[in-house]
Amino acid sequence: MEFDVAVLGGGPAGYTAAIRAAQLGARVACIEKESELGGTCVRVGCIPTKAWVQTAHALHAAREIDPKLGVIVADPRLDFAQANEWKAGVVKQMTGGVASLFKANGVTALEGVGTFENANTIVFEQGDLAVTFEQGIIATGSYPILPPIPGIESPRCVDSTGLLAQTEVPERLVVLGGGIIGCEFASIFERFGTEVTIVEMLDSLIPQEDADATSELRKAFARRGIVVHLGKQCTQVDDTGSGLVVHFGEGETVECDLMLVSVGRAPLVEGVGLEAAGVDFDPKAGIRTDGRRRTSVPHLYAAGDVAGYWQLAHTSFREGEVAAENATGHEVEVGDPAVPRPIYTDPEIAGVGLTEAQAREQHGDGVAVGRFPWVANARAVMSGEANGWVKTIHETTYGELLGVVIVGPHATDLIEAAVVALDAESTVETIADGMAAHPTLGEGLKIAGQVALERAIDLPPRRRA
Ligand code: FAD
Questions:
Q1: Does 217 lie in the same domain as 356?
Q2: pLDDT in tens, 186-205
Q3: Most Cβ neighbours (<10 Å): which of 20, 72, 216, 362?
Q4: How far is CA 222 from CA 186, 187, 426, in A?
């Protein structure tokens, strides 16, 4: 089988690259080892977790928000079997969507484990079928890291895929690793009625995020009864037959029924035949590429988690597009776009650009911040969810916006306005002087900008940041 472009991996990076290359006129094959397309994101990542996030939010709303608004739902409770059916249905619709897009764009989908035999051939299906190609795009993604902790091989220690496959809600869950994935699952399962304990080696939850935002999360988790142990390493896990005893810190223990191991993901570079293709890679950092996503072999490109710093679906989408455009004779770079950082906990968090600490590190005293609390926003108040705030961060020489952080309702949707503003190199005045529809949550960004400029109409002067 001969193709202009072969893509290895059918996740966000791979399926985007395949479709984009086909749009540009190439004959494209995409080799994917799973029976469904969509990769980690669609099958066992972004999509199923957020389906559960919706269930968790609906449950919370029925119990604690709707009654305030005058809607009484008798005895709201979780039907976990139905929640799982809903999750599976959402995933099916999305994986089917990718398959239909392949068909509509004339991309040939090939199922099987693919391995490079050389820089122009990928063999797949136990090595008895081969695809030859002129240009190749590697998009094999990443896998969850299993730390070397005695006892962690117990079947009660699961990764995110294992947790998503549960058919019973565990009574007690330990989450090992307080990063984004760990915090999202902690948030979901507490709403599902589980007793949740997070054990994190570092001194903060989600340490890469803005410190004010993660401290809000920590406070919210404390209010909800989620126990968080920071700066404590897990040293051993004992399977008692009916549960686990997790050892951490200096002789501390916690008992649970299930432990989620979410300590990070590593690029999937082993067993792909990268050596046979001559592609340079590092087992930890993944495949090295330039800004055009070109590897050490000029006609081979790499995109997504296998070659990425961010490990996000939307960075993978863009890298896939860029790889495909270069593979079909165009000259495009990913550049340095604003990358939104969505976190689907309750409260939601979303950031883009610099955190406040990064801005102060880079610009010293020439940084100003505006913080607008949702409690002063009519739409947030009427929806019964007014915890959190919007924060703008700008430098004071030209007023250029450096970053935005949002904590609270719909933060992950609202951040898009800030992404566009940062990509357009907007000033804080652009944010503050533009109009936002009223009454909306969208007004939060504008008013945070006004707070930064010390001229907010909606806050009394003493409350300005
Ligand atoms: P993948 O999605 O991993 O796809 C790689 C594909 O390659 C897979 O389908 C794999 O089967 C296939 N493959 C690998 N090797 C071979 C081979 N040799 N032959 C054939 N096929 C092969 N990101 C967000 O932006 N937002 C979120 O809300 C979010 N939530 C997440 C929640 C969880 C629980 C997890 C685990 C991840 C989440 N992510 C999220 C991250 C996101 O899923 C990844 O960044 C994204 O899937 C990376 O896309 P990719 O195409 O590089 O890799």
A1: no
A2: 999 999 999 999 999 999 99
A3: 20
A4: 12, 11, 37
